[in-house]
């Protein structure tokens, strides 16, 4: 029998340009947190723009809760948001411009988290 790991990593690569794909990682993340699974959403590529203060509040996908509600719930339930350091640098987003829950990380941290997780999803 395979050992169950109680962590899930969700890699999100879309920002406000695709509201549905920006929101779904947090829908699934919230479901996993409700099931007592630790969740790290890792924002890469244009997804890092969601961690910029004032950005995610304006993302709405048809049929889903507003992204602000999803992210706020995710934070309240103990979810973690990591952002790709090179991706924010490329977009001239500094750490002080990030929402409180966002933590810049490098590739090594992402690889370690994925290898320690029971599941890794990508959007």
CATH topology: Hypothetical Protein Ychn, Chain: A
Summed up, the helix count is 4
Number of domains: 1
Write out the strand line-up for the largest beta sheet, numbering strands in chain order: 4-3-2-1-5
Average pLDDT reading: 94
**End-to-end distance, in Å?**
29 Å
Give the CATH superfamily. Answer: DsrEFH-like
- Overall geometric form: globular
The CATH architecture category equals 3-Layer(aba) Sandwich
CATH hierarchy class name: Alpha Beta
Estimated structural class: alpha/beta
- Given as residue ranges, the uncertain stretches (5+ residues, pLDDT < 50) are none
Largest sheet entry: 5 strands, parallel
Which value, in Å, is the CA radius of gyration? 14 Å
Determine the fraction of residues in helical runs and give it as a percent range: 25-40%
Count of β-strands:
5
Q: Any overview of this molecule?
A:
This protein is α/β, with parallel strands linked by helices and 123 residues long. It has one domain: Hypothetical Protein Ychn, Chain: A (3-Layer(aba) Sandwich). 34% of the residues lie in helices and 20% in strands. The chain contains four helices and five strands. The longest helix is centred in the first third of the chain and has 16 residues, at 19-34. The N and C termini lie far apart (29 Å). The relative contact order is 0.25. The model has no long low-confidence stretch (mean pLDDT 94).
């Amino acid at each position: 029998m395979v050992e169950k790991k109680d962590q899930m990593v969700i890699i999100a690569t879309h920002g406000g340009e695709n509201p549905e794909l920006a929101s779904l990682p947090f829908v699934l993340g919230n479901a996993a947190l409700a099931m007592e699974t630790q969740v790290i959403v890792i924002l890469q590529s244009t997804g890092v723009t969601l961690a910029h203060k004032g950005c995610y509040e304006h993302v709405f996908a048809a049929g889903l809760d507003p992204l602000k509600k999803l992210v706020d719930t995710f934070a309240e339930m103990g979810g973690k948001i990591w952002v790709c350091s090179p991706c924010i640098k490329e977009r001239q987003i500094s750490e002080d411009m990030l929402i409180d829950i966002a933590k810049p990380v490098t590739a090594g941290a992402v690889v370690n988290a994925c290898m320690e997780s029971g599941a890794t999803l990508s959007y």
